Amino acid sequence: MDAVTYPDSKVVSFISENLIPLQVQFDAQPLASDFNIKWTPTVITLDADGREHHRTVGFLAPDELIPSLLLGMGKSCFENERLDEALSYLEKVLADYPKSDSAPEAHYLRGVCRFKSTHDPKLLKEAYEKLREEYPSSAWTKRAYPYRLL
Amino acid sequence: MGDKIKWESSMDSALARARSEKKHVLLDFFNPG
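^ Those are the sequences you sent over. The predicted structure of the assembly is below.
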């Protein structure tokens, strides 16, 4: 990550504008134990109270790290019931990084946020249909499978 | 905006900045090799 992804100009800009970056050695205590670190690189998205919302283990190229961080911020907002903000992060994943590994989960979570905002179950069905169409082999398509019946 | 990421090295300072700038924290655990 330090050799390839973090020096990338798009990554530098994105992180500088959107996040507070904190880098610690894998064995630094108490954080390594607090976060149960077993392998590197491990990248975690925290909210401003230090709560974890998203984690990846292993190398991510620039075009995977940025959508993963957007997804992490979206999940943080979702888990803090800030659905409009969550939707804005998730929409950005889908608009700018639709081929990324983060996109199917963003699609799924966008459907959930839209449902929770409106209580319209058709939005969950719509999420499943989009997932089936665009990411037929994704685990998130399988997780949305029951929504086809709504 | 610079040409390198300006990493924080302590959780306390990262969270203080996150609260003040209303941002999330990217926490990267690395192995210096």
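Chain B has a mean pLDDT of 94. Helices of chain B lie at 11-21.

Shout if you want it in another format.
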